[in-house]
Amino acid sequence: MDIWHIRGGRRLEGACFVQGSKNASLPIIAASVICPARTELMNVPQLKDVDAALRILRHLGCVAEQRKNDVYIDSTYFSCSAIPHSLMEEMRSSVIFMGALLARCGEARLSLPGGCQLGKRPIDLHLSALRQMGAEIEEDGQEIYCKARKLHGAEISLPFASVGATENIMLAACTAKGKTLIHGAAREPEIVALQDFLCSLGADVTGAGTDTVVIDGMRPQKHAVCRIIPDRIVASTIACAAAACGGKVELRGVIPEHFSTVLYFLNKSGCDIMSKNRTVSISSQGRLKAPGHISTQPYPGFPTDAQPVLMAALLKAEGCTRITENIFENRYRQASELRRLGADIVIEGREAEIWGVECLRGTSLNATDLRGGAAMLIAGLAADGETVVFDDGHIGRGYERFDVRLRAIGADIFLEY
Known about the structure:
The chain is of the alpha+beta class. The protein has helices at 22-31, 48-59, 85-88, 97-105, 124-132, 163-173, 189-200, 232-245, 260-268, 307-313, 335-339, 370-382, 402-407; strands spanning 2-7, 12-17, 38-42, 63-67, 70-74, 107-111, 136-140, 143-147, 155-157, 180-183, 203-206, 212-218, 223-227, 247-252, 272-276, 279-284, 293-295, 320-324, 344-348, 351-355, 364-366, 386-391, 412-416. The protein folds into 2 domains: 2-19 and 230-416, UDP-n-acetylglucosamine1-carboxyvinyl-transferase, Chain, CATH 3.65.10; 22-227, UDP-n-acetylglucosamine1-carboxyvinyl-transferase, Chain, CATH 3.65.10. The longest helix has 14 residues, at 232-245. It is elongated.
C-alpha cells in the first residue's frame, strides 16, 4: 500500500521535465518481439506497467532489462508463445502481445488482461480484425488461443477508433502476406510513435496520425533504436496541478500539440499559457473560472485520461463546469472521494456537473484507479490542511517518482511505501 501525505495550500513554482510516455512505451516493448532483433529504447519511464511488460518478455525467452530510463531487449531467442494469467492480469495493455506473438510465432495463448476497472473495454474489435487476417481464435472462459499458419493482409474497418485494436492490427500485419489497410484507425501520438518504431525494425507502415493506416510487410532489421515521446497525460496532470494551486510552472521536454485540448480549457479557465518549442509555461492565480462544457473524445479531441485531473483542477472554479464522458462509463469513480474534500459534484450517467466551492478541506481518500488517484493528489494540493491518499499501487502504474517531481515545483508531498 502506497500512502501519499499532502499538505495543501502552497503555490507551485519552478520547472520540471516530463517523463516518457507509458502508453507509447508498452506497445513498442511488445513490438520488439515481432522479429529477432536487439532493441534500445531511451526515455522509458520507470513504472510498474513497464516492469510487468519486461517480465512478460523474459517469460517468452527474451533478454530484457531496464537501466534507469533506458531499456535493452534482445528478442533473438524465443521459447514460448503463451503468457500466464499472473502476468496478463497486471495491466490492460498486455493484450497488445496478441498481435506481436501472432506476427512472430503464428500463435498466441493468453488470458483476458487486467488493469484499472473503468468499465467495459471488450477486445472484440481485436479478435474480429485478426480473424479477418486469417487467424483462428478459440475462447475458453478467460483464456484466448490464436493461431494462424500464415496471416494475410486485409482491409479492416473499425467501428470506432480503438487505440488497442489499431496497435494489435499494426503488429500482426507486419509479417502478414500482402497489404493491410486499417480504416477508422486511432490517431493518437502513440500510434505515430509505434509506426516510427516498426519502420526502424524494417516494417513498411504509413498513415499513422490519420484515420487510415497501411501496413505492407517488412524486411526485418537486426537492430533498432527508439526514443520514447513525452507523456502527454503526465504533462496534463502537472499543468492541472499548477492551475489548481496557483503559481507558475514550466514543463520541459514536452510536445505542446499533444495535449493542446487540455491547455485550451486551462486557458479558458483563466490560466496564462505560453508554448515554445518543447516547453510549456502555465501561470495561474489559483482561482479559476468554469470553462463551460467539456466532452471527452478520441484524439485529437479531449482525452478521457485527462478528464479526472481537469475535474480536480476545477473544483474551486467560479461557476459550473459540465463534463460528458464518452469513452468509459466508470471514469467518474474519483468523484465520490473528491466530495469528501468538500467538492460539489453531481453525476448522472455519463454527465458530471462541478460547481465551484470556496475551499476544500483535507481528509483521507482512497485512490480508485490510476488517473482518479492523480486527481486526488491535485485536489489535496489545492485543499487546506492535510490530505492522505491510500493507494493500492494505482498511481505508480503511470507516474514515475511523482512525489519527487511535485516537490521540485514546491509541493509539500511525501510518499510512504
